[in-house]
């Protein structure tokens, strides 16, 4: 059963949505799935802490092998893209050094949403989920040297990454386009951290 950690959403809001998903989860047995869930929770908490983010203020919809999170209204989107992604990559590298690797896809988008009876509803969670689950993102992670691939929406790239705030590097991103259920989506892929370094 999926459990939600919910910070209340009051009506229709415009927020940053972050989704993560672990590679190869469905191929694992129940014990290993449980261990992966524990490692994923630890990685997310550690990365948020190192990025100066408080996950207790996130609206989180847990999905077994991942999470769909809505960040607070005062979240600095450029900071999250730059520093949270960087911290996630560092935490995953540490797991690999410890012999317990975890590979993940991360998707981000800003848009409208609200809380529905069975979870989040609106443009933002749908677009974020479509980006996360795109075949091109799965393929990028399968071919990546590192353990993390980030995809952000075209809107986030244009509005946030191009500003280069917090050392964001637009040159680390590659445009991609795909169709799901007859709808075209555009995003920008980044293997690993999104900052200059």
Automatic annotation (TrEMBL):
One of its GO terms (molecular function) is adenylate cyclase activity. Transmembrane segments: none annotated. Residues 16-132 form the Guanylate cyclase domain. One of its GO terms (biological process) is cyclic nucleotide biosynthetic process. This is Class 3 adenylate cyclase.
